[in-house]
Amino acid sequence: MSELSLLALIGVLSISCQWLAWRIKLPAILPLLICGLVLGPTLGLLNPDALFDDLLFPFVSLAVAVILFEGSLTLKFEEIRGHGRMVTNLVSVGMLVTFVVIAVLTHFIMGYGWEISALFGALVVVTGPTVIQPMIRSIRPINKLANILRWEGIIIDPLGALLAVLVYEFIIASQDVAFLHALQAFATTVAIGFALGWGAARMLGLALGRGWFPHYLQNVATLTIVLGVFALSNAIQHESGLLTVTVMGMVMANTRNLNMEEILEFKETLSVLLISALFIILAARLNFSEFDALGMPAVILIAIILFAVRPLAVWLSAIGTELRFKDKVLLSWIAPRGIVAAAVSALFALKMEESGWQEAAAIVPLVFVVIMTTVVLQSLTAKPLARMLGLLEPAAKGFLIFGANQMARAVGKALQESGVNVRLADTNWENIKLARMDNLPVYFGNPASEHASNNIDLTGLGRLLVMSPYKQLNPLVSMYYQDWFGSNKVHGLNGGEQDYRASHQLTESYRKTLNLFGESVTYSKLASLHFQGAKIKSTPITDSFSFADYQQKYGTRALPMFAIDETEKLHIFTTERELIPQPGWTVIAMISTESDESESEKPNAN
Predict the structure, then answer these.
(1) 580 touches 541 (CB < 8 A)
(2) 100-153, pLDDT tens digit by residue?
(3) φ, ψ at 564 (rounded to 5°)
(4) Which compartments is it annotated to reside in (predicted)?
(5) Which of 11, 74, 83, 116 could form a cystine bridge with 112, CB 3.0-4.6 A?
(6) Range 402-437 burial, b when 16+ CB lie within 10 A, else e
């Protein structure tokens, strides 16, 4: 197979693995690693060293630099303090305990030197959002534990990367020199990394904040500058580049009034592409004999990591918190390793082998075994464990509402007052601020973005209402959450999209979601009714006051929206099938004050 064909094959398989992971609701790292092992050591179709030759090391180095910069852009120090004592403890005390204990165990069980053992310990402290998020969605633990796991993954990703880089830098600085000289070299590397990273972040932040780059060049300019700073740092001080870009991302993430959302989305997209290709390439370099060489000591080490080290870190971190015994049991079991561990271990192994560290070759297969073991074992067993402990979230019956305008806020308040969980998402800060004043849970930003997939809290939410005037975003959000919730649990307003549908030839699956409240009910109509004084009211249906009586009383002044039956199940009035509320139900409708409100088609329900 030609070199061009192999590169194309890597690209196609990268996207295929990402798609498969989405379908089976598992972290993408697993199918990517399996694909690489099949292409490389199993079939012998892919030999990365022969394919890339001298470019393999630079490619891996630049890819890891981008991954670390993108990961560090998510670390906001205020979020460490803002998500509870348990999260703070896990990413500080828990991370250090995990690092030290695993390093000591690796030295005595595997027989590696202290340097390699410490590096392995630093590499496997990281979970990361790309592995923990799919697992949380599949398991659906109670809200409190889901938030702890999610924020631990988001925050420990850059902190763990920083720890691994610092350990690596110290090992390189201490090679063949006295301890004092090693400390001096390490201090120089850290000083240059922090100083150059901070300075580059400030300069780039100033350029972006003052609009020195046109909008269409901001993403490319940022990427180019990051890679340039990485190369410059390595030229000034050997192997300081990774530390520099990590610090650079952290400083930019914590710079006030610097909007990094679009750049972060671009970097996340680029990282997905790089990570997908990188994992296939790195896995293809492995040899099954390397796994065999690990032997029984590796099995013992991984078992202790799973059943002793993680529980120790969780129990120590939980001191002084209100977590129950069963909460700590579940947290102790969910800690899959991910992207940073795999990518950084491969890069460090390449560099250290070149520097004469022969033991470094064993790091990559050992890290990959930890990744595959934790992802597979915990994905298969965490949900049954959560069910046994009674820690599964109840069925997701709540609503994510896209739109936090006045009308959407009124609908959200009516649902919340009826005991239904809601969360409003909007890209307009003024709308979000007003929703917060109404005590409505919110998400500020595009709910279909990569940032939302890592940060929006969907616990207890399983349906989407699109009630925004944003004709460009409505289809994107609808189709995004069809994948997440299911196509029959996404509902949007119909008439307001007619012209837009015709001109943009939107998919049939999206058109089917435009069924909310009635055929002729548009966003404009609802907003107009609400502006004219229409109120959303709940009315019980009884034996003496049937739904027919309700219709007769209110006539066209009532626009039924929802109905709650005697089992507290909420039904939506849609155009798909007829709904006739029965005695014991409650109808939630928008009641107009205008007696001559135009007749609209009777809505049906699902």
Answers:
(1) no
(2) 999 999 999 998 888 889 989 988 888 766 778 778 877 888 878 887 888 788
(3) -110, 120
(4) Cell membrane
(5) 116
(6) bbbbebbbbbbbbbbeeebbbbbbbbeeebbebbee
Q: Are 318 and 89 in contact (CB under 8 A)?
A: yes
> CA 85 to CA 80: how far, in whole Å?
9
What are the tokens at 136? 């949380």
Q: In what order do the strands lie in the sheet with 558-564?
A: 535-540, 586-591, 558-564, 570-574, 604-605
What is the C-alpha to C-alpha distance for residues 32 and 38, in angstroms, rounded to an integer?
10
Helix (H) or strand (E) holding 560: strand 558-564
Kindly report, residue by residue over 514-556, the tens digit of the pLDDT.
Answer: 778 877 778 888 888 878 788 888 888 888 888 888 888 887 7
∠ at Cα 220 (218, 222), nearest 5°?
A: 65
- Tokens representing 370? 């930890």
Long-range CB contact pairs, 434-440, < 8 A, 24+: 434/404, 434/406, 434/409, 435/404, 435/409, 438/409, 438/412, 438/413, 440/404, 440/409, 440/412, 440/413, 440/416
Alpha-carbon distance of 373 to 299, in angstroms, equals 10
- Residues ≥6 apart with Cβ < 8 Å to 286: 36, 37, 40, 41, 364, 365, 368
Residue 219 contacts residue 66 (beta carbons within 8 Å): no
Structure tokens at 127: 């979970």
Q: Give pLDDT tens digits for 299-333.
A: 999 999 999 999 999 999 999 888 899 999 999 99
- pTM for this predicted structure: 0.70
Distance CA 545, CA 166 (A): 72
Q: 527 Cβ partners below 8 Å, 6+ apart? A: 405, 406, 407, 469
The angle, 0 to 180 degrees and rounded to 10, between the axes of the packed helices 3-24 and 29-37 is 140
Q: Which residues pair with 544 in a beta bridge?
A: none
Predicted confidence (pLDDT) per residue in 425-453, tens digit: 998 899 899 999 989 999 988 888 767 77
CB atoms within 10 A of CB 217: 11
What are the structure tokens assigned to 581, written together? 């509320």
DSSP element (H, E) containing 180: helix 179-209
Give the separation between CA 36 and CA 55, rounded to whole angstroms. 19
Secondary structure element (H or E) that encloses residue 157, with its range? helix 143-173
463 membership: H or E segment, kind and range: strand 461-466
Do 173 and 185 form a contact (C-beta atoms < 8 A)? Answer: yes
Cα maximum dimension of the chain: 92
Cα separation, 315 vs 328, in Å, equals: 7
Q: Is 571 helix (H, G, I), strand (E, B) or coil?
A: strand
Percentages (nearest 5) of helix, strand, coil residues in the chain: 65, 10, 25
* Beta bridge partners of residue 596, listed in sequence order: none
pLDDT tens-digit series, residues 16-34: 888 888 777 777 778 888 8
Is the separation of the CB atoms in 276 and 223 below 8 Å?
A: no
Residues 6+ apart with CB under 8 A from 268: 70, 450, 451
